[in-house]
């Protein structure tokens, strides 16, 4: 027996009538079936099957296409110079994911990996080019065919089909096997790329969380410095202004911290976000009961979520400060809901003293109301004030997305 080593020609046992006469009708039908199988395998890959699902489909369909009892994917483990049976069909229990074979040149799979050349061996019992792996001996395999599995610039391993029958693998079978390996190789490349991308995203997420943590700490330090400054001044009005500034800086820090609790940094479920912000209010509203009722699934860009949350924070602070001035506590209700196809609404209601009869939102001079108006203008939002009995309700109607630039 001999072997060819020119170019990428396969290593095949020499046989007097290797190709034989013209293909019979049965053989032609078999080739057509093999092409259908390759198409089916390609569709499976394109439909986004997981890597393990595609491995399983490959070995199953390849065995069918070659009318063989066995097929397996051998994953190369460089540190051990061996192949792990990563997936397979027809093998006894305890083989897949456990058994391994040598990856040296003396094994058919090892030769295919090292040289990049396919290997056909139709008579393993008489084979003098390679040793027959023990796993094949145990299963009574008489013939085998191997092709390399490429992927992302370096070999993943080998795709091998094995059979107990006395029939022979021919070059047409090799073309089919190589086609299956090529499809699987593209999936291997995609899987490795996705794994690297996931690792990069995880690194970016760690960095983002670190930056977020530092921003939060920096804002907390600023708020603390303002509170300390308030203690050292003798002017009551200035003390109040400094404490208000400290509260607002701390509110920004809390809103920022809640913003980066999720994985999507570009969009935010505004209902869940407002609910989280309301659970993290400072001690200035501790005497009030804050209740939330939100519709989930209303997603808006992150920058709009921040401004919306800060409007809510200011409305809650105003309600706690002015609606219940002489009471030990009171109820503040927050509602987030859809408002038509392109807007959502945030309602902040108290059951307190109510607004002055001559209250005009557009002419309000308090810093809190001016901040609310500024954020509303930024969001192209509309604020409606509803006097209640008792209390007051502010409703902010906000577009889901920013209007396109004119």
TrEMBL record:
Entry keywords, A to Z: ATP-binding, Kinase, Nucleotide-binding, Phosphoprotein, Transferase
Cross-referenced SUPFAM superfamilies: ATPase domain of HSP90 chaperone/DNA topoisomerase II/histidine kinase, GAF domain-like
PROSITE patterns registered for this protein in UniProt: HIS_KIN (PS50109)
Residues in coiled coil: none
Organism superkingdom: Bacteria
EC number: 2.7.13.3
Annotated signal sequence range: none
Pfam families in the record: GAF, HATPase_c, HisKA_2
Region described as Disordered: spans on this chain: 1-22
Keyword Transferase: yes
SMART domains: GAF, HATPase_c, HWE_HK
Domain Histidine kinase: 210-402
Catalytic activity annotation: ATP + protein L-histidine = ADP + protein N-phospho-L-histidine
This protein's name: histidine kinase
Entry-linked InterPro entries: GAF, GAF-like_dom_sf, HATPase_C_sf, HATPase_dom, His_kinase_dom, Sig_transdc_His_kin-like_C, Sig_transdc_His_kin_sub2_dim/P, Sig_transdc_His_kinase_HWE
One Gene Ontology molecular-function label: kinase activity
């Amino acid at each position: 027996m001999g072997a060819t080593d020119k170019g990428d020609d396969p290593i095949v046992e020499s046989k007097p009538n290797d190709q034989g006469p013209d293909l019979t009708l049965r053989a032609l039908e078999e080739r057509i079936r093999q092409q259908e199988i390759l198409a089916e395998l390609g569709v499976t890959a394109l439909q986004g099957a997981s890597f393990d699902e595609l491995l399983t489909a490959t070995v199953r369909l390849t065995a069918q296409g070659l009318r063989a009892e066995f097929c397996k994917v051998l994953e190369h483990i460089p540190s051990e110079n061996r192949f792990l049976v990563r997936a397979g069909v027809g093998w006894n229990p305890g083989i897949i994911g456990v058994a391994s074979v040598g990856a040296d040149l003396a094994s058919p799979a090892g030769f295919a990996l090292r040289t990049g050349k396919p290997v056909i061996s139709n008579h393993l019992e008489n084979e003098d080019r390679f040793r027959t792996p023990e796993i094949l001996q145990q299963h009574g395999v008489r013939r085998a065919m191997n092709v390399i599995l490429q992927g992302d610039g370096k070999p993943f391993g080998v795709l091998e089909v094995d059979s107990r029958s006395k029939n022979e693998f021919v070059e047409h079978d090799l073309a089919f096997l190589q086609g299956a390996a090529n499809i699987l190789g593209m999936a291997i490349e995609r899987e490795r790329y996705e794994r690297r991308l996931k690792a990069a995203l995880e690194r970016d997420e760690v960095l983002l969380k670190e930056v977020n943590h530092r921003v939060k700490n920096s804002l907390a330090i600023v708020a603390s410095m303002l509170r300390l400054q308030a203690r050292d001044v003798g002017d009551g009005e200035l003390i109040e202004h400094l404490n208000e500034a400290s509260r607002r800086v701390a509110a920004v820090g809390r809103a920022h911290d809640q913003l980066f609790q999720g994985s999507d940094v570009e969009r935010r479920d505004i209902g869940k976000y407002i609910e989280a912000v309301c659970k993290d209010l400072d001690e200035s509203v501790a005497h009030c009961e804050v209740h939330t009722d939100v519709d989930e699934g209303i997603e808006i860009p992150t920058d709009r979520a921040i401004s919306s949350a800060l409007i809510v924070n200011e409305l809650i602070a105003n309600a706690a400060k002015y609606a219940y001035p002489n009471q030990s506590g009171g109820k503040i209700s927050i509602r987030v809901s859809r408002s038509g196809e392109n807007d959502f609404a945030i309602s902040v209601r108290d059951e307190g003293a109510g607004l002055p009869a001559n209250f005009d939102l557009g002419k309000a001079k308090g810093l809190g109301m001016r901040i609310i108006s500024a954020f509303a203008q930024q969001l192209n939002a509309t604020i409606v004030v509803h006097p209640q009995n008792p209390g007051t309700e502010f409703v902010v109607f906000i577009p889901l997305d920013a209007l396109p630039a004119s």
